[in-house]
Write a structure and sequence with these properties.
With 111 residues, the protein is of the alpha+beta class. Helix content is 23%, strand content 35%. It is built from 3 helices and 8 strands; from the N terminus they run H-E-E-E-E-H-E-E-H-E-E. Strands 1, 4, 5, 6, 7 and 8 form a 6-stranded antiparallel sheet that branches. A hairpin with a 6-residue loop joins strand 5 and strand 6. The chain is globular and about 40 Å long.
Length: 111
């Protein structure tokens, strides 16, 4: 399970816009990339891509893994091809592999 410190850092690096009707822009850039928090350890990139594909076409799906053990770190990233799909995913509640997960807008590093 991720440490509280890591979760705090991750939560500070994402912006929750779910439920808002305003334009999905981060500065001048459209929002396409989302962070998915609370993933079960067994969730694969294929599962993530299949699940979020129901909201619209995806460019990428990635489950972050520990570099030494290769085990999931419990979160990942998805990148949609359009902002409408990202907005639909943000507005929905998610259960992946039997566990509730949260999708948030991913902020660029250093933001």
């Amino acid at each position: 399970m991720p440490s509280n410190e890591m979760l705090s850092i991750l939560e500070n690096s994402v912006l929750d816009l779910a439920g808002h009707n305003e334009s999905l822009l981060l500065g001048d850039e459209p929002i396409l990339k989302l962070a998915v928090l609370g993933l079960p350890w067994e969730t694969s990139e294929d599962t993530l891509k299949t699940y979020f594909g129901q909201f619209g076409p995806l460019d990428t799906a990635e489950v972050l893994k520990d570099r030494y053990t290769g085990k999931s770190r419990g979160f990942g990233f998805i990148t949609f091809l359009d902002t409408l799909s990202a907005q639909r995913a943000l507005a929905a509640e998610h259960t992946i592999d039997g566990r509730r997960c949260e999708a948030k807008v991913a902020l660029p590093k250093g933001a």
